[in-house]
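Lab meeting, item 3. Inverse folding demo.
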């Protein structure tokens, strides 16, 4: 039997890098909201992935995985996850709440993994899901007119796309995540651009490409290079060096930074229904990630 590999704990530098990436990912939601305010959201998503792919694809080796998994990952992440998220934000989903609801992917991933791979859902995970889904119900029922049902459903389907992509990563057999992010970014731009032209009109696509100002293109570069290439590259390196168990829970800070940034940038107000629902979703996430520490030991399956 091979001895277990001992990974170094997070030092101050690694922790600072992890906090920087979660901050970038949280702030990214307000950048999305700014960028889709006057542009076709699916085109914005297409440009984001085009910047993420070029020129990095010329310097990064292709991930060692079957082509069908690479294409599946590119479509689920680029078209389903981010395409629908950008559309949802343009249709009224707030940046802060969107950053939180996208974390529903953790529950969808666990449910899909149980179905596809036979993974057991632990008791604390089931309770965390119940709490979070109750929060979703509260948000849907009590939030008021500022949040449309369409934007809520689109955000949840986007989170489901993220969950499916997580299963594709597992099925890939440990492909290099940085290579996967860069090469899969080649896939979404064409279908997203076609969908943008079909749904929003080619005139809007042309106007965005020809007449957008430097602020818009700066947002595209931030989303493509800062959020995607730098963010996923550093995050994958941290997990590889320090282990997923130490690094992954820090992603819970993404909606914290997203909610704070949205409140500062857009003066986002949380009516009681939305605040209660958001608190339940976040509580469910915390229980899902850390519940084993608090669950009675005698009830934890071997």
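The presenter then showed the designed sequence:
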């Amino acid at each position: 039997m091979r001895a277990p590999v001992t990974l170094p704990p997070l030092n101050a530098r690694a922790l600072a890098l992890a906090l920087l990436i979660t901050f970038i990912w949280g702030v990214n939601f307000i950048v999305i909201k700014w960028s889709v305010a006057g542009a076709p959201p699916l085109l914005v998503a297409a440009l984001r992935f085009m910047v993420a792919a070029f020129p990095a694809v010329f310097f990064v080796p292709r991930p060692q995985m079957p082509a069908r998994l690479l294409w599946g990952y590119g479509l689920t992440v680029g078209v389903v996850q981010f395409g629908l998220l950008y559309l949802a934000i343009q249709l009224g989903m707030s940046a802060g709440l969107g950053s939180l609801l996208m974390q529903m992917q953790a529950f969808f991933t666990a449910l899909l993994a149980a179905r596809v791979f036979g993974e057991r859902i632990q008791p604390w995970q089931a309770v965390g899901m119940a709490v979070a889904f109750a929060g979703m119900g509260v948000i849907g029922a009590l939030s008021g007119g500022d949040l449309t049902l369409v934007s809520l459903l689109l955000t949840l389907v986007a989170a489901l796309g993220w969950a499916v992509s997580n299963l594709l990563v597992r099925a890939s057999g440990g492909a290099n995540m940085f290579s996967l992010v860069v090469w899969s970014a080649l896939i979404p731009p064409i279908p997203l651009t076609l969908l943008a032209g079909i749904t929003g009109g080619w005139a809007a696509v042309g106007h965005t490409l020809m007449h957008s100002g430097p602020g818009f293109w700066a947002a595209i570069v931030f989303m493509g290079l800062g959020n995607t290439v730098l963010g996923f590259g550093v995050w994958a390196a941290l997990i590889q060096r320090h282990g997923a168990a130490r690094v992954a829970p820090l992603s819970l800070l993404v909606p914290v930074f997203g909610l704070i940034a949205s409140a500062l940038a857009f003066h986002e107000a949380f009516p009681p229904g939305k605040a209660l629902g958001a608190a339940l979703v976040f509580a469910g996430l915390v229980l899902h990630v850390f519940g084993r520490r608090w669950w009675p030991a005698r009830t934890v399956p071997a």
